[in-house]
UniProtKB/TrEMBL annotation:
The keyword Iron does not apply. Gene3D superfamilies: 3.40.50.11780. Residues 97-124 form a coiled coil. Residues 529-632 form the Tail sheath protein C-terminal domain. It comes from Parabacteroides faecis. Belongs to the myoviridae tail sheath protein family. This is Tail sheath protein C-terminal domain-containing protein. Keywords: Coiled coil. The lineage of its organism: Bacteria, Pseudomonadati, Bacteroidota, Bacteroidia, Bacteroidales. The keyword Coiled coil applies. It comes from the Bacteria.
Amino acid sequence: METMKTPGVYIVEKNAFPNSVVPVATAVPAFIGHTQIAMNGTKSLLNVPFRITSMLEYNKYFGGGPQPEYSLSVENQENIKGAGKKLDEKDAEIESVNITINTIQNLQEEANNLISALEEKKPEGETTVIADRIIATVVILEDDVKTLEYDNIPSDVANIKTVADNVKELISQPDVAKLKANDIIITSKDIQVKINNIVPKLKNERKQLVEAVNTEIKKLYSVSESLWSISEAPTILNTLYYNIVLFFANGGGACYIVSVGDYSEAFTSEDCEAGLTPLTKEMEPTMLIIPEAVNLSFEEWKKTMEYALGHCDTMKNRVAILDIFEGYKPQNDSSGDVVKNFRENIGSISLDYAAAYYPWINASVVSESDIDTFNLTTESAKLLLTIMQYELGYKSTKKIEQTDNKENATGVEKADEVLLDYKLLNTLLQSSPFGALVRKEICKKINRLPVAAAMAGIYTKTDNTRGVWKAPANVSINKAVSPTVNLTNNAQEDLNVDIYGRSINAIRYFKGEGVKVWGARTLDGNSGDWRYINVRRTMIFLEESIKNAARAYVFEPNVASTWLNMKAMIENFLLGVWKQGGLAGASPEDAYSVHVGLGDTMTPEDILEGILRITVLVAISHPAEFIEITFQQQMQKS
């Protein structure tokens, strides 16, 4: 209190209300993975947790999506290429015949020019030039027809060559020279008639070869034969971008991105560890998602799960949403039961801080129009170009060595790379039926995604609309076309209730309702305290909110007035939570109680040691997971 020494009026203000508890944010996920870039202006964001609130901001600071390269495998490609080679040879033969006809017509024109020059009695020098052109044309013609073994055509051309050689020597005898030139015209026309008779035969042979090529290509359309396939995954698979799209599509808001590398390298367990280290200094994130962990080997995936659970156990203020390794496979897959493998390898540390969902989903993040031949390896692009050109009826395949290539298009030069005409490839892709199948399959591979990121969005949306105490279940997943495995009630029984408590939440399709989340349990499914994810997250929300508010009383006198102020502060906060439906009970007394005081929560020794103990009891609402309605007949009363 201010000492009053001078007469006058003094104003003294007293606080009438205790400090209040400010609710912490409950839905702020942190994502770890590889991005295209990681820059804020000139500042690197590599291994730096960076807060964003929209997909627009993600694109600004972390770039766009990857362009994964898949491999195309075609079992009957040698048959297609063999049949196509014969077709190319026949096309070359037909083209050669057409060129030969043009050469004959040029020969006839030169012979007529010679006759005209002789009749007009032009200087011998001019006439000799024309005779030389006739000889040169005959030499070309002789080369053109050497492979045409039809009706002695090469012999006829040889005779013309003999006559042509004589013409030049007979220039001084115009009448004889005109007769020789006329013989050239007559013989060449005879050859032209013979060649014209060949053309229908060649075209008929070509038609049969086209049918042979089409027969091989049509086999690719047959689902039953399955003569082609797209590789399961490219060498470098970066999927964080697609998962962020799912997050925002399902109601996501503010989140942290920890970029641990770019698209030149694949995600590793070491990247996960490096990304978790700076996250320990951030107190706002309440969820942890590592979408690219499922792209690792099983052993590497297992390490990342251990890192994630260990991080949540250390921080105590966030939960991990885990993806099941190879969760797109059914449980009876020949390679093994993916759910069983998950349960047996997830460990037993802090399972109440984690939830898992099965199966993955077929999403619609990427459309077929987004897929082009940049999504194929160079060899696969060459193979697809060959098939599409035959399929679309090109007379012959164009040379694929061109001046424009994929690497130049992305700004990366590779001197030893085979250059491909990607403009031609993508033009053909728009019209090719087989190209459409390839594009659809690649799109399907990219859109097969785990659901942790989508669930983070659903958690956020549920928290914002209903509160963190509402179980994030019975909610449709946006951009989900279907689950990769259709679960039945019987199939879900094993997922939901496990003898060892490793509960897995189901993603199910319901007719007329779409793909929905059908489970809200943590991995600690046998725990009466932490069975449900909304209970764990509500408790984190209460703990963190009260913890932050209690910091104001650190070093305050450990006396009754401080105890009463803190008790009133906490009770006011819990009253507000109860009114919103976050706590169970018909009255506040049933929903919560706060205990503090000497002889209640503290001993004299505690006070001497500077310890203030407060006990908060809360009745958190549990979801009505099983609803039983009993029906019974009764006697007629009227």
